[in-house]
Known about the structure:
CATH superfamily of the largest domain: Type I PLP-dependent aspartate aminotransferase-like (Major domain)
InterPro entries: Aminotrans_V_dom (IPR000192), Kynureninase (IPR010111), PyrdxlP-dep_Trfase (IPR015424), PyrdxlP-dep_Trfase_major (IPR015421), PyrdxlP-dep_Trfase_small (IPR015422)
CATH class of the largest domain: Alpha Beta
Number of domains: 2
Organism: Vitrella brassicaformis (strain CCMP3155)
Shape: globular
EC number: 3.7.1.3
Subunit structure: Homodimer.
Pathway: Amino-acid degradation; L-kynurenine degradation; L-alanine and anthranilate from L-kynurenine: step 1/1; Cofactor biosynthesis; NAD(+) biosynthesis; quinolinate from L-kynurenine: step 2/3
CATH architecture of the largest domain: 3-Layer(aba) Sandwich
Amino acid sequence: MDAIDPIRDGRTQFFVPSMKDLGVRDTDSGDADGECVYLCGNSLGLQPRAARALVNEELDKWSKKGVNGHFEGERPWVSIDDNVTPLVAEIVGALPHEVAVMNSLTVNLQLIMTTFYEPTQERHKVLMEAQAFGSDWHAVASHVELNGYDPHESIMSPEMDKDGLHTTAAWLSLLDREGESISVVLIGAVQYLTGQFFDDIPTITQKAHEKGVRVLLDCAHAVGNVPLCLHDWQVDAAIWCHYKYCNAGPGAIGGYFIHEKHTNSDTVAAASFVNGHQRNKGDSKIFQPRRLAGWWGADLSTRFSMRHEFISATGAAGFRLSNPPVLETVALLASLRIHTQYGMQALRGKSLLLTGYLEHLLETMLQSHVHILTPREPNRRGCQLSLAFPSLPPSTPFERLFKTLADKGVVVDHREPNVIRVAPTPLYNSFADVWRFVDILAQALGVQCEQ
Length: 451
């Protein structure tokens, strides 16, 4: 299968850790310099080979130009994010002016909550998944508390089905019953624990908007993984990170989307405010979304004037706070160029095959030993399969199983209490990687398999 993979050379554009790099001694082949089985792009993507050169170019410019680097060279720092914003917009299905590359995931979640969570006594609830990532819950709860409400009363979640998965019907039902009391909906586009891709976001968005509810997405596990159409879906805002499937490095700069209907040029481009108050232009009041403002969100024509009057940049750029970190931004650029080379359609096509192959091997070789938590329908999942082990013998506790995999050069991750997340990533993973993982997992479980 690898021999006929049209994007198999993508792997050559990344550094794949060797067994020796990871300190692995127990190798079946005895080749310590051989590559490990890295199936952890859902947690941290591998380093693009081009990243080091791009970062070094900016370090060299800093050493030779100093502060003048802001306005000189191939990539002036003052507009460094212009190099990546259009590429990111293409991946998330947005217009370029709807996207900003800035901050980090939870900071950006705090910012979209500031803009869209405007609780009243009648409408103060937040609808979000019960198994939301911990940081999302903390961020949302902090906004609820700052506005004088109890998170345990104001945060509500739809029921999951018997398999622990979300259903569109449950979200719609709760919106029908409680919509008049809900301020915002927050959906994880791909659920971090189960790997479920919430593929019916437009239906939920339409129902929420009918009820006067804003829709926000956490796309941390979705960007670069599954097809996204943020603009066409009409969601109000979204946030994500770039260190997973976009391979921008640990702690990488994040992404931010706000639909143009909230920042369209007729109402906002010329808007201004002082100390958070709306300003009038002529006889008409200008619509201005709530925001926490910073100088990098100001229009470039006024940004360096240091006046105490905020003139917003157009679109999502108006929500930036500070200048983006240059080294993080060019590290992201290295990976985005590879994404652009192949395109999301080709990547998604290979992803479906890789994950389908993983599912097939698990079902044919380890069916009685492994339970797949992720939906079986390909359109309801991304790269990741989440595995539980309900019948582990006492002699093989979960912690020992995970350590055995690591000792044999398998890099995956786990979540409490007993879930291993496995994510074959199309940019750099091969079908051989998938086979090696299942073979090693079978050995760790003490199951004899035939190739």
